[in-house]
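batch job 7 of whatever, protein = GlxA family transcriptional regulator
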Amino acid sequence: MTRQDEAAPVASRFVSRGVAHLNAPKPAEPIMVNFVLVPKFTMLAFTSAIEPLRAANQLSGSNLFEWRIFSETGAGVIASNGVQVAVDEALPRQSPPGYIFVCGGVEPELTTSAQLADWMRAQWRHGRTVGSLCSGAYILAEAGLLKGRRFTLHWENIPGFREAYPDLDPVESSYCFDNRLITCAGGIASAEIALKLINDHCGAEMGQAAMNMCLLTHRRTAEDPQTISIAARLGTRNEYLVSAVEFIETHIDEEFNLAECADHCGVSLRQIQRLFRQHLGITPVEYRNNARLRKARILLSETNLSVMDVAVACGYASSSHFAKAFRKKYGVSPNRFSNFR
């Protein structure tokens, strides 16, 4: 993926031609949206944030929005899918106008940069609205911008984030707006951020038209969860089973007490065991063990935690017990799996 020649007229860079057209309110000046790419950023989150802006420009026939792409050094950045993206320049010394988003991706602990965190903090202090896509919240956390704020990041990164920043509590919403802080879980949810900017600056009609151009059939609210509900995931609406699974998944790092789980759900031990076997084909203990290993796999993939620390975070009494269970489930030791990164 390459950028067009910098010498080209602005209109040819930001405004593409199309059949559809819409007259809508135009801001006095183009709205600037800046993106900072970090190594292994997720392409879907990045492009989903830009395409609605491009669609709005195409519909209006003018550059309602302009965007610039930065990296720490000014060199192109390789995304998590292996595609290298060229950028406009290195992080500028002076604060760029408009919104500033850091685009995160996989292995955020390995790509979190103190220099970028300092730069993002400086933009905030200069009055800019800053934000993050996907796991970019790691950078904002390092910058000290998330304390006392409502924020989110991709669900896959939340367990590791909570281990790295135990004093911060992300929500599992698709996106969050908190004053001058905008955070997004990434993926196609990034389009929601772009559509919000279009609505705010160009009106709801243009926002709806941009949605149609991107073939988006409905808008998510900020409160919508990132993933499907537990009931949908389990394939049942049985309230007792759903409550039990939620209890298990929120107490992964604690010693499991089936009687306590049953009491929480308001059912007997025999009934809760029957529900798991009937709907899931496994026992509550087996479900809990699988959930622990899923979390462990994520932590080994996305963080720098030691095998011992991962074992503790997932409720295992010893690293040897954890290693044995992990190898049985995935066919590889935790140490070897962690080294695959």
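notes: The longest strand covers residues 31-37.
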